[in-house]
Give the backbone structure.
Amino acid sequence: MDKKDIFLVVLLLFAIYLWSLPVNNIPFGDVDSSVHFTSGDYMATFDKSITQLPSYMSYAITADTGGRFAYPPQFNAGEAIAQILGGQRIIPVYLFIVLLCSSVVLSVYFLIRKLYGFFPALLAAFLAIFSRRDIMYYLWGLWPQTIAFAFFPIVVYSYYKFIDLYDNKKERIKYILLTILFIGLQYTFHPQLLFFSLTFVFIYPLVLFIKDKRLPFKIKDFSLLIVLLVVLIIILAPLQLRTVLGNLGAINTGARTEGYSLKFDKIGGLFYWFKFYDDYLSSVPKPYFSYSYVYGGYWTFPLLILGFAFLVIRRKKQDYLMISWAITLYLFLHMDIIGGNRSFRFLQIEAQLFSSIIAIGLIGITSFIKLPEKQKNYLKYGLVLVFIIFGLFFNAKPVYSELKSSYQGITRMSEAEYNAALWVRENLPEDSLILLAGTVAYNKKKWFLGLSFRHILYDNQLITQEDADKATHVLLDYSDMVMIGRKDLIEQLQKWEKTFLANATSLYDEGYVKVYKLENR
Amino acid sequence: MKIGNKTILLFVGIVYLIFFSLFFSLTGLRFILGFLAIFILPIYLLLGLFNFEQFERLTYSFFLSIGIVPTLIYYLGIMISFRIAIVVVFATLVTAWVFLRKIVY
């Protein structure tokens, strides 16, 4: 370890500071975030690991999971450990999430430092801090996926060492075991990354084989890698194996799989780095696909081209590694052609690759210019300084604003809503079916469920209609409407309250949130 | 002046403790102390037995620990109290390091 690596600590702390801007005493997140949070929260609260999800999380239970976690349980166990260590319900869990999600800065720095030296590593890691796609997924609450992606540069490095140390048996075995371990652990965060890493494990030697006309490893070692990896995956998360195989369509678990077949209409997409299709917009917003948005404008684009040119022209062993990474990503970005429907998700890892290549491109400029060593160093320092200033202005500034302002207003639970969820958890019977009425922000409806540890009935209506006749209680939430100043909605809900809850018993009434017990239920 | 790895590690550790207590008060301090002790430390010690360069050892400790430690605690936590599982796993990993160190050196 070099003294220069102290700069990494500065980058990591800056990343943690930036990514933790939305963290406070009330949880945040969209889509699966409440499921991820409550799975760990439940383990910490009841002081036990769970293999079956609690019944109130039925919305998260699908036919193919058989009532178990859809993802391996390690991440949720980690959240529970963080909660116990920090001694508080919310903040330690989010610090754990921030630390793990922003670890992409560490892994990118590590890989590029080992392959290309200090300055490219510093700049690549610096850009990775502001990776918009990582930040998007982090804010939405797709934490396991973000963490699994952060593992990839570590997998790449370990595998590179295994192949590079062909003649050193002891070291070779060490790195093959590490490669297996990291791919296995990556799988515990998100199964889809297993397939990405596995493909890379085949692509890199294939590229080397084409170059050298000989296999870069011993068949025995490679077979060991595959066999041990399969065994490790079974050991690490045996209860999720069925779900993963079901999602792949390998076995029938009732999971919805579209099946794999060649889509001729999408073949033209092969001529693009990534072909955008309108149906992606049902999952992610349009800026997700914009180079300018993701990389802070187009100022990095010439450097990206230069970086690619540098790799292709120079073609040293580490350059082949980066090229193999690019090929692997290209293949995954075109999975639509064989029927995959999640190829856009792999764009998340593009930032790691592009940040690295951009940094390599910038530092590569000095190798194209003939100058005495001293002047060359001055040029390098100058370029690094200009790069950091541009990065702070074009990349850091919008990211800071986005993180600072995220989950303000009705998209995050108010203090009153959070307290009501706690009250429900402590005071209502476990078999209660609580109908939610009045909450405007959809993502919060799941949070009510996750935080109250009770079965909350909700749908996309203002007053829940689905299974409403089964409800034993009503949780009436005026706080969103008050916050957005919608008097019309308040009056509508008050009218409903007077009509339908006239005979119900009021149990709780604090800060625009009420809980009623329905008569004869 | 040559600064040793232990000094750098100590410095980095202290910077992290200050950072987390400054921005997240006592909760932050408790969390990062616990994280460094329960997650990172046992794996870092064990990796010391395998001849890694310092930066490699630190980075590997982080990524191995966030997967291995929860795995062990989770599966033990099915049988015993989750909190006790944290202590048992920590103690087991450190004990394993003590024994293995005697064998290796």
Summary: Chain B touches chain A through 49 residues (CB under 8 Å).
